[in-house]
Design brief:
The chain has about 240 residues and is of the alpha/beta class. Helices cover about 45% and strands about 15% of the residues. Strands 2-1-3-4-5-6 form a six-stranded parallel β-sheet, with helices on both faces. α2 crosses α3 and α4 crosses α6.
């Protein structure tokens, strides 16, 4: 590739670049990543975060956008409202509405003490089964230190109330949909729903769990780079010869 392409990275529920660092390290030099970090205080609804993302990309003429997990709906919203800026959309391990519809009635329970308790319980296997110098354990510890239960609770409530199915139908950009075959956080039916609302989207299923993109990012990275390169090659073929 003879020119630099910008890839805007919208992170998961933690709102940081922590789990993306292995992926970022594998990107070729011609892809310039811009990770949008979410605030650890103030409002964390999708509309609030959309304003932050739009401000962050306002000086970028064009880009590809990847929305991972929590940020999938946000990526869709950005593509719909910035059609001239967003060239392509990558939706990874994500959803258009609450990934588990049976949880929406428990929205009232998405409060800081409950989220803290869940995080604590989920943290126990990480500390007991992994070595202290394990990179994934260190990444988990970093997000624990950076992101408060209050902040996570606000984002969980946002997830339980979001629905961007109609918004995706308004997007004209090419879409790469990525899912992990062992993902228990965002089950496979969410990827199928994305395809039902955007039949032209390409689905790629990769082996691993919800955070496989951090634990073993090689195949994930390869698919993303290939998608961007394919779209750029197509654009060049369509450009008039001067």
């Amino acid at each position: 590739m003879d020119k630099t392409i910008t890839l805007v990275v919208l992170p998961g529920l933690d709102g940081t670049d922590v789990f993306f660092r292995p992926f970022l390290a594998l990107l070729p030099a011609w892809i310039h990543p811009v990770v949008v970090h979410y605030p650890q205080s103030s409002a964390n609804g999708y509309e609030d975060l959309l304003r932050i993302v739009r401000e962050r990309v306002s000086q970028i003429p064009d880009c590809y956008v990847i929305g991972s997990s929590f940020s999938g709906p946000l990526a869709v919203m950005l593509a719909a409202i910035e059609p001239a800026r967003v060239r392509g959309l990558i939706l990874s391990a994500t959803f258009l509405r609450s990934p588990r519809e049976n949880l929406t009635r428990f929205k009232f329970a998405a409060i800081p003490p409950v989220i803290w308790a869940i995080r604590f319980v989920r943290r126990i296997p990480v500390w007991t089964l992994m070595k202290h110098d394990d990179p994934f354990r260190q990444a988990k510890a970093e997000t624990w230190a950076l992101v408060s239960a209050r902040c996570l609770a606000a984002r969980v409530r946002a997830v339980l109330g979001v629905d961007v199915r109609e918004t995706l139908q308004k997007c004209n950009q090419p879409v790469l949909c990525m899912a992990f075959d062992g993902d228990r956080v965002v089950p496979r039916h969410n990827a199928e729903e994305i395809l039902s609302h955007r039949s032209s989207a390409r689905l790629v299923v990769i082996h691993g769990d919800h955070l496989a993109m951090s634990k073993d990012p090689a195949e994930w990275t390869r698919e993303i780079v290939g998608f961007i390169q394919e779209q750029e090659n197509a654009r060049q073929r369509c450009e008039p010869v001067s």
